[in-house]
Amino acid sequence: MADTKTIVCLANSRRSGNYCVAGKEILGDGRYGEWIRPVNSQNYDNAISPEDMQLADGGQPKLLDVISIPLLEHVPEQSHQPENYQIDNSQPWTKQGVLDKQELPALVDEAYDIWRIRRSTKTDRVWESCINEVNQSLLLIRPESLTINASGWKVRANFRYNGEIYNMGVTDPEAESRYAAKESVEIATDRVYLCLSIAANPFRSSYYKLVAAIIGDTD
Q1: What's the rounded Cα separation, in Å, for the pair 169 and 206?
Q2: Which pLDDT belongs to residue 1?
């Protein structure tokens, strides 16, 4: 039997030809709960297809949409993706509204660093041998500085957080489209948030850290 949860969408990024959707649960009393990542085990890499996330009104979820999702069960992936829930793809998702950007500060996570499990770890990955030391794969942060760099269609974010510089690939389709033709763009960070994610599976002995969404005023 499906258990419907309502989340604010904080990521709708590329994943293995489909999408990775994630957000924080909106509780009945108006508070914000834990991260939820809906997945579909019937798809490669547990990704969400456009058909899976089609809304009852025929649209697709966008960043900051408040959406209700029928879920079947909690299906954590190893230790580092406890946020995963299998969807009930026999029922549509429903858009309930759009979150006011003024609410975003209440959703920010507190983190000393961004999965720097060992100081020798590169800033855009966690070594496969260290992944069991990770207990969550999603963060919403406010960067202290942010520069977007592009080479062809490969877009990367160079940002500072708690005094440390990070450089990660961007998988936010809207941000990729917006910045792909620009070599380097410095973005004011007073109203910008980054949703960060760790990939579900390793590539060449590493789990990559990704910028799954750039949220806010980026002009």
Answers
A1: 14
A2: 64
